[in-house]
Amino acid sequence: MILQKLTFLRQYGILAVLIVLVIFFSFTTDAFLKTENLFNITRQVAMLGISAVGMSFVILTAGIDLSVGSLMSLTNVVCAKLMVEGGVHPVLAVFITLLMTCIIGMVNGTIINLANIPPLITTLGMMTTLRGISYVLCSGYPIWGFPERFRVLGQGYVGPIPIPVIIMILIFIIGWIFLNKTMYGRYVYGIGGNEEASRLSGINVRNMKYMVYVLCSFLTGVASMIMLSRINTGQPKVGSGFELEVITAVVLGGVSIFGGQGKLIGVFIGVLIMGVLSNGMIIMNISEYWQLVVRGLVLLAAVGVDNLSSMKLKST
Prior knowledge:
With 316 residues, this protein is mostly helical. The chain has one domain (32-309): Orthogonal Bundle (ABC transporter involved in vitamin B12 uptake, BtuC). The chain contains 13 helices and two strands. It has helices at residues 2-28, 35-60, 68-84, 90-114, 119-138, 152-155, 163-181, 183-193, 195-200, 205-231, 242-252, 264-283, 288-315; strands spanning 157-158, 161-162. The protein has a two-stranded antiparallel sheet with strand order 1-2. α2 packs across α11 (242-252) and α11 crosses α13. It starts with a helix and ends with a helix. The model has no long low-confidence stretch (mean pLDDT 90).
């Protein structure tokens, strides 16, 4: 009975939170339910959602990647410098930048696998390193002057739907198929559930860890390219605190911080909750400082519920 209740809470509790927030902001603000604002919310959460898919893979294996915010900063600066100072075609600049993100993800995976340093420490060190490199490359100054056609990626539409939203939905669909319809998806869940048992059953745990960290970095790079296109300026301060928003959305969406449990549909709802909460507080003119307080409390609440649920499941 307890197991059934916890499963029900994980599946439907997060949806109830989203509905309550939508109702609350609908009654407290006049602008929230306007079509323009709803599209604005989806466009704003597109970067968060894309990166959250990659982070979900990492956390499902009982890992974590704290470097995604700094990686967003570095990719913004590198791609901007390639286009503006190097004269590189936007498509080639994006390709080179995304290749760089894959290499960084491989470095994370190598340190974790070969040096046996915990993911928390590895990515914390990488977070500081990448942020420092981004400031060194541009001396702390923003970079602008991109080709006009580059703006389409972050500011364009297909009919009434923003291109970033389409990209996010496609990535969620591909991620869902991978996790639920392929053997590699089962490996991801298996490693998070019991790494040693997965290794003994013949799963190449080391290669799977390489894969999830490369994927997380790559998808963060995709999100970063959209961000760069939206703001039309390469700035080293971009992505500050982004890693906490991504982790909050993933854990809030029901992915266990201990690994092995969670679904991408829940992560999608968690991303929407973060977007609705942020947008609603801005419309209500709530101070940015109080917004930080609320986000921190949401993260604590999400991890707390996950911890209590895991303890209950272990005791049943």
